[in-house]
């Protein structure tokens, strides 16, 4: 089931309504510039900041859910990749030397049986070596397939993280725009950027748990794929 897209509420309110809200709050003395901080302050501003924080958490939770399946796949592929060197070593079977047949024909049944036995052993050894070589080739192909898939997973995760941050950044931009319009209504004069609460509109805090959950795996993927790309 596809995840429902997370959106921040109230960002679609027409700016004229936001201005009127600020105008009413300004006339009612329920909004203004704080003398202590120099920031625009009101229940409207504080409420929108709370909504933004809620949106940040929900959007990163959505990102977490979005990449859950490919992260599980990546962990499985990394474990398989780590076991590859040992498997490849186990399949290293030296090719047997060809049996050197005597220049003269065997002079007895016993000598003929010995020659045939040696030939059979050499044939078995050579067959085992060929099979091991085929197995190694198959495993090398599997290793290449794993690395290619890990590159795809790495890029997909990075793309989804970028989309998430872009959406949060867009929400910040929209909020700042509305705060300026609202503040203009409150003060009946332009509101400057330094009057907008900037710190409260940061969103990297929302990625702290996400980073703890995924940084190690992403570092492993980067390490093995970088080695292959180099």
Structure description:
With 230 residues, the protein is mainly α. 70% of the residues lie in helices and 3% in strands. The chain contains four helices and two strands. It has helices at residues 15-27, 43-90, 109-187, 208-229, and strands spanning 31-33, 40-42. A two-stranded antiparallel ribbon has the order 1-2. A hairpin with a 6-residue loop joins strand 1 (31-33) and strand 2 (40-42). The radius of gyration is 34 Å and the shape is rod-shaped. The two termini are 38 Å apart. The model has no long low-confidence stretch (mean pLDDT 86).
Q: Could you write a compact summary of the structure shown?
A:
The protein is mostly helical. The protein has helices at 15-27, 43-90, 109-187, 208-229; strands spanning 31-33, 40-42.
- C-alpha Rg, in Å? 34 Å
SSE ordering: HEEHHH
Strand elements, count:
2
Please list the strands of the largest sheet in the order they lie side by side.
1-2
How far is the N terminus from the C terminus?
38 Å
**Proportion of strand residues:** under 5%
Low-confidence stretches: none
Share of helical residues = over 70%
Rounded mean pLDDT is 86
Tally of alpha and pi helices = 4
Approximate shape: rod-shaped
Given the helix and strand composition, which structural class is it?
A: mainly alpha
Largest sheet composition: 2 strands, antiparallel
């Amino acid at each position: 089931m596809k995840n429902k897209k997370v959106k921040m509420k109230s960002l679609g309110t027409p700016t004229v309504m936001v201005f009127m809200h600020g105008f009413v709050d300004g006339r009612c003395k329920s909004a203004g510039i704080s003398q202590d901080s120099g920031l625009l302050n009101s229940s409207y501003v504080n409420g929108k900041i709370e909504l933004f924080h809620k949106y940040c958490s929900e959007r990163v939770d959505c990102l977490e859910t979005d990449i859950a399946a490919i992260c599980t796949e990546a962990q499985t592929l990394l474990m398989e990749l780590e076991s590859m060197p040992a498997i490849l070593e186990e399949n290293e079977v030296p090719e047997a030397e060809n049996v050197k047949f005597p220049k003269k024909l065997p002079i007895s049944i016993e000598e003929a049986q010995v020659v045939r036995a040696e030939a059979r052993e050499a044939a078995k050894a050579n067959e085992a070596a060929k099979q091991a070589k085929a197995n190694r080739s198959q495993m090398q192909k599997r290793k290449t397939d794993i690395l290619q898939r890990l590159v795809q997973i790495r890029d997909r995760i990075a793309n989804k993280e970028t989309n998430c941050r872009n959406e949060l950044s867009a929400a910040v931009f929209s909020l700042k725009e509305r705060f300026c319009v609202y503040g203009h209504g409150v003060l009946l004069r332009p509101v400057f950027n330094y009057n907008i609460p900037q710190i409260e509109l940061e969103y990297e805090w929302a990625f702290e748990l996400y980073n703890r959950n995924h940084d190690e795996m992403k570092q492993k993927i980067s390490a093995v794929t970088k080695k292959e790309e180099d």
